Amino acid sequence: MASSKKIVTLVLIGLVALAFTGCSSDDSNPAAVVVDTAPPAVPANLDLDYAAGAATITWAENTVDSDLAGYVISRENNGTTVALVGSPALMTSYVDNNPPLGANHYSIYAVDTSGNQSAIATVNLAISAGHQIAELAD
């Protein structure tokens, strides 16, 4: 008889534990969590202006991604890539105060709060000793 009471007691304890842990209606269940894998929109309407030795890059504000963390910007010149904005920053323009002579290839992409990255938008600036040429990349 004592062993039957122990079995019943253990079954009841197990059911109570299951009721408190396995039947929860909150969102802490990892299987119910939705993972964001959608990248943010690509920076659009890039424009580049070069005046007084500074390159100013602008782009349209992202109004579609509520989880936008910001933009990352780099510049490649003569085979060397430099991170100008290495961590996502909320902005719609960047000023490169002293870009080097030669072909400067700027890359800009958006990052959301889940770490998803957009495709890369690019703009190019060629600077020679006598003059400059700015062009948007396709």
Can you walk through the features of this model?
With 138 residues, this protein is mainly beta. It has 2 domains: 2-32; 47-136, Immunoglobulin-like (Sandwich), CATH 2.60.40. Helix content is 14%, strand content 41%. Strands 4-3-6-7-8 form a 5-stranded antiparallel β-sheet, with no helix packed on it. Strand 7 and strand 8 (132-136) form a beta hairpin. It is rod-shaped and about 100 Å long. The model has no long low-confidence stretch (mean pLDDT 85).
What's this model, at a glance?
This protein is mostly beta strands. It contains one helix and eight strands; from the N terminus they run H-E-E-E-E-E-E-E-E.
Task: Annotate the secondary structure layout.
Layout: H1 2-21, E1 47-51, E2 54-58, E3 68-77, E4 80-89, E5 93-96, E6 102-112, E7 121-127, E8 132-136
What is the CATH C-level name of the largest domain?
A: Mainly Beta
Strand content is 35-45%
User: Judging by the overall fold, what is the CATH architecture of the largest domain?
Assistant: Sandwich
Radius of gyration: 27 Å
Gap between N and C termini:
83 Å
Q: Roughly how much helix do the residues carry, as a percent range?
A: 10-25%
Quaternary structure: single chain
Reported by name, the CATH topology of the largest domain is Immunoglobulin-like
Strand order of the largest sheet: 4-3-6-7-8
Which structural class fits the helix and strand makeup? mainly beta
Uncertain spans: none
> In the CATH hierarchy, what is the superfamily of the largest domain?
Immunoglobulins
Give me the count of strands.
8
Largest sheet: 5 strands, antiparallel
Number of helices: 1
The coarse overall form would be rod-shaped
Integer tally of domains = 2
Give the integer mean of the pLDDT values. 85
Order of helices and strands: HEEEEEEEE
